[in-house]
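Handout, section B. The chain below has 175 residues.
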Amino acid sequence: MAVKTILPFGEPILRKPAKPVEEMTPKLIRLLDDMGETLYATDGRAGLAAPQVGFLRRIVVLDCGDGLIELINPEIVEARGVQTGLEACLSFPGYCGNVRRAQWVKVVSVDRSGQPFTVEGEGFLARCLQHEIDHLNGVLFVDHVQEQWLYHEQKSHRIPLLDVVRLTHAGGAPL
C-alpha cells in the first residue's frame, strides 16, 4: 500500500465526471487500499474520492467515526431534510465554507467483492456521502457554498468565493 498525493483544486481532473467501475481488478483493489491508507495518513480527513488522487473512477473511501466505508459506483437514491454547516475538502487545504446539504441520504453501492449494499446516513455522515459523491461528478464543495466567501481555518481571513470558483474551472494554482 502507498499514500497517494491528494490533488489540489485547480487540477482539471477534479472537474471531470468519473467513470463507473465495470469490474474489480487487482489494480482497483490496490487503489482502494491506497486510498484508505491515504485517508488515514491525512489530518482533518473524513473522505476521499478517486479523482482526488488522480483516478477517474467512481470509488470513494470515508470514515466519519465508525470505521472505513468503501463505496464503488455509489449513487444517492433518496435524500430528505436540510442541514447547513461548515464544510472543507482535502483538495482545498485549510479552507471551508457554509454548505447546504440534505440531512439524510440513502446510497446504493457495491463493495470490493462486487456485492451490492446500502448505506443510510444522517447529519455528518450524510454530508460526507454527498460531498464525496459530488467529487465523482466533477462537483466541488465550493459549488454549494452559501456565502460569497471561503474562510481559512487558521489564518482567520476570507477569500472571495467567485475567485476560487474561477480558479477551479481554469486550472489555477492553489491559494
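Note. The chain is about 20% helix and 30% strand. Compare this with the example in section A.
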